[in-house]
Amino acid sequence: MRGDYPLNSTLRSSRRRLRATVVCALVAALVLSAAWAPAALAADPIKIGFGMALTGGLAANGKAALIAMQLWAEDVNKTGGLLGRKVELVYYDDQTKGATVPGIYTKLLDVDKVHFVVSGYGTNLIAPAMPIVMERKLVFPALFGLANNEKANYRGYFQIMPAGPRPALDWTATYLEVATRQTPKPQTIAIVGADAEYPHNALAGIRENIKKFGLKTVYDATYPPNTVDFTPIARAIKATNPDVVFVASYPPDSVGMVLAAHEVQLRPKMFGGGMVGLQFAAFLTKLGPKLNGIVNYDFWVPEPSLKFPGIEEFLKRYQARAAKEGVDPLGHYLPPWAYAYLQVLGQAIEGTKSVDQQKVAEYLHAKEHDTIVGKVKFGGNGEWATSRVLQVQFQGIDSGDVAQFHKPGKRVVVWPEQFKSGNVVYPYEKALK
Amino acid sequence: MFSLELLLNALVAGILLGGFYAAVSLGISMAFGLLDVVNIAHPVFVMLGAYAAYIMNVRLGFDPILTGVLFTPLFYGLGVLLYRVYYASFERKGAESLRGLVFFFGVLFIVEVSLLLAFGVDYRLVEAPYIGESLRIGSVGIAFRLLVPCVVGVALTGALYLFLSRTFYGRAIQAVAQDAFALRLMGANPFRVKGIAFGLAIATAALAGALLIMIGPVEPAMNREYIGRVFAVAVLGGMGSIGGTLVAALILGIAESLTATFSGPSWSVAVSFGVLLFALAVRPAGLFGR
């Protein structure tokens, strides 16, 4: 047994050393982990999630919007990200189907654990996401929805489209502002639109405005979204002989209506209003001179009155990317706004130094934001505090060459006064010549 | 708002639209009506025809109709090939009903996604000097954009009708539709005859697609909007009756146009399908059904 002592003693001392080593290692690990914690957090990206129409009817715009959003993320990450963290976009194709939207946003929030969500493109795709963001009290920057928050009046909703505080009314009022300032003043109006969310909202708005501007409605109808032939509609409108025709249509219908109007020689004093699609290169180039005289809404065109800081540089980069991906080569309609709605979110995150939904929402309400589409100030309902819907008239288009639409003078801003770049050619027939 | 001028114009517009519907539906009438092949993918082949017309128009400046005619043999070959796959995988094994339907759904998605990858999601249009122009005969205006599809649709119907009633292969196709076994006893090969018929059905899509893109812009997913309409025409016409398809297409076109002109366009589709339901209640086999 004696002979065991030195062994026991050695064993004990080595155990002691081992224990000390383990304790030291644990302490060092704790200290190190504490020291590394902020660095590890800093490496976690801020995730922004959304569904986007990458296939289906609105995909042409959805893809263009996605390019703009990716450009924003690249720009932010190049300058160190937000709050020192990289930005990561997490997105899914909503297939232009409202039914896919609730599932996408639930997955983004519960599985992907995104920090913020923003909307996909268009009224019909924003509406199905609203109950989820409202239930979870999230900030929700939205991309081109008409009057999505009119009934809910949700505090976290922020619409980048400058329709104004009363979207359906303000949007359509601009068209009638232009019409009723002309001489001779128009007396009658025909209104027509697709059986879908946006046209319904637009038609509801213009019905109110018609009363305000003292016009008489002689035709008021909607058509199914898959209508093939628009000539019977154009002819029925022509039979009522209206002074003004307001059309709220989606892209394929807009083309159908423009062609049908030419074919049946529908010649009101003013024609256009709410036709989606007449802002895209694919349609501008194919319709060419048939667009002359149409007065239609827009949000940005390359007129000298709308040169905001950063927009031209953005468009150059977008156009280079769009050419490779085969989407709208002009990118004047949606991409600047898709970039801008992430700009305002980014500025609010930086401004509050926080990813807290409540704080970010309050910041977005309180401040004015500098973006590539100009200064953005949100009103109480999350719409722009003042409307900046433009009415643009197609003038002097003599071919389908896309290059002409990069330059000013073909889509002349006739409303509002602040951004006006030319006068309306009135009546419509005069501009056709 | 009623006037004789409006009525005449609505009738003419309906006839023009009907002619176009006939062109789009002929393939379904042949495949579904004569061969009992539920080719739910037919509208996507129409879309393929539309994109062929687009690419030839943009690259080579070809008129869409010319492209439609040029691509017809290619589509015929595609149809024959597709039928061979369908026959070997489903029909021969007697599994054509549900599995065959799933097969054509699969074909629909594959072609649609291929178009998406090749052309992107943007709307595509073609240019032709007559698009957007119209012809006036008295108080009736006729849009060339709709007149050309109608003329081509009627001509296509006439050609198919003559082929089926006057030629050996045409009669063989009608025979296989009636009794494939009896045809076999006569020494003909039903598989080969059905292959020819299915090839012809798909070949009509090349022209129908060219007509579609002439009328308005297209995008790959648009084919689904036409599934209901083309089957409605084929069923109303009497499943396999080529003349019946044209008559049914004209009835639906006129019903749509009259409703759009006089009662508000939002009712037009409802009225068309109401006509279909009424006709089927009176004649369950369709207007010219056997």
Q: Secondary-structure element order of chain A, as H and E?
A: HEHEHEHHEEHEHEHEHEHEHHHEEEEH
Q: Could you give the order of strands across the largest sheet of chain A?
A: 7-6-8-9-10-13-14
Mean pLDDT across residues of chain A: 90
Strand content of chain A: 15-25%
* Shape label of chain A: globular
Number of strands of chain A: 14
Task: Report the sheet-strand fraction of chain B.
Answer: under 5%
Question: Roughly how many Å is the radius of gyration of chain B?
Answer: 19 Å
State the end-to-end distance of chain A. Answer: 120 Å
What is the topology, as strand order, of the major beta sheet of chain B? 1-2
- Determine the number of helices of chain A (DSSP H or I, runs of at least 4 residues): 14
Helix content of chain B: over 70%
Uncertain segments of chain B of ≥5 residues (pLDDT<50)? none
Oligomer: heterodimer
Task: Describe the protein's architecture and organization.
The complex is a heterodimer of chains A (433) and B (290). Chain A is an alpha/beta fold. In chain A, 43% of the residues lie in helices and 16% in strands. Chain A is built from 14 helices and 14 strands. Chain A has helices at 4-43, 59-78, 101-110, 123-126, 130-135, 167-180, 197-213, 231-239, 251-263, 281-287, 311-325, 335-352, 357-366, 428-432, and strands at residues 46-52, 87-93, 116-117, 140-142, 157-159, 188-194, 216-223, 244-249, 270-275, 295-298, 368-371, 374-377, 390-394, 411-415. In chain A, the strands form 4 sheets. Chain A has a 7-stranded mixed sheet, sandwiched between helices. In chain A, β11 (368-371) and β12 form a beta hairpin. The relative contact order of chain A is 0.12. Chain B is mainly α and 290 residues long. Helix content of chain B is 75%, strand content 3%. Chain B has helices spanning 4-34, 42-60, 64-91, 98-119, 144-166, 168-178, 180-185, 190-215, 223-237, 242-262, 268-282; strands at 134-137, 140-143. Chain B has a two-stranded antiparallel sheet. Chain B is globular. The N and C termini of chain B lie far apart (42 Å). In chain B, 54% of the residues are buried. The mean pLDDT of chain B is 91. Chains A and B meet through α2, β7, α8, α9 and α10 of A and α1 and α10 of B.
